[in-house]
Write a structure and sequence with these properties.
Elements: E1 7-9, E2 15-17, E3 25-31, H1 40-51, E4 56-62, H2 74-85, H3 104-113, E5 125-128, E6 134-138, H4 147-156
Parallel strand pairs: 3-4
Antiparallel strand pairs: 1-2, 3-5, 5-6
């Protein structure tokens, strides 16, 4: 299995198959609108703007799993992201990222990185290589534009 075997629903509705990102690096981030780390949207947008033409996709996965910090409906989440942080990278519908009801991607990711690499809070990040393998993970406090994440992204960008 790989990342490309999973399907999401776009925040606007409709299918968002991970297969559509084949050949691109993907930074998957579980997001929340009312979290102390919500300002990471700015850095996520910056990384997306900087690297999208080189083959990076930032994929936001809204989740209400931690502290009930994403209570809104899809249209409210999308509006918040666009108007507050000018987000134009793809967002999925709201998903569970932990527990028995977790989205299948998150269940698979846990088998790849173990409990230590699983989301403990909002804004946990997974880096997916263009071939769909999960290459790295970054905990919530690691800023999306940190040297550590930028180095990892640059290492997996398509040539």
């Amino acid at each position: 299995m790989s990342f490309h075997d999973f399907d999401f629903t776009a925040i606007e509705g409709g299918p968002l198959p991970a297969k559509s990102f084949e050949g691109k690096a993907v930074l998957v981030v579980n997001t929340a609108s009312f979290c102390g780390f919500t300002k990471q949207y700015e850095a996520l947008q910056s990384v997306w703007s900087r690297y999208r033409d080189r083959g990076l996709v930032v994929l936001g996965v809204p989740s209400n799993d931690f502290g009930s910090q994403e209570p809104g409906k899809a249209d409210e989440i999308k509006d918040f992201c666009e108007t507050t942080f000018n987000v134009d990278f793809p967002l999925t519908s709201k998903e569970h990222v932990k527990g028995d009801n977790a989205h299948p991607f998150y269940k698979w990711a846990k088998t790849q990185v173990g409990v230590l690499g699983s989301p403990k809070w909002n804004f946990h990040k997974y880096l997916i290589a263009p071939d769909g393998t999960l290459t790295d993970w970054f905990s919530t406090p690691t800023a999306p534009d940190s040297a550590k994440i930028i180095k990892a992204i640059e290492a997996v960008l398509p040539q």
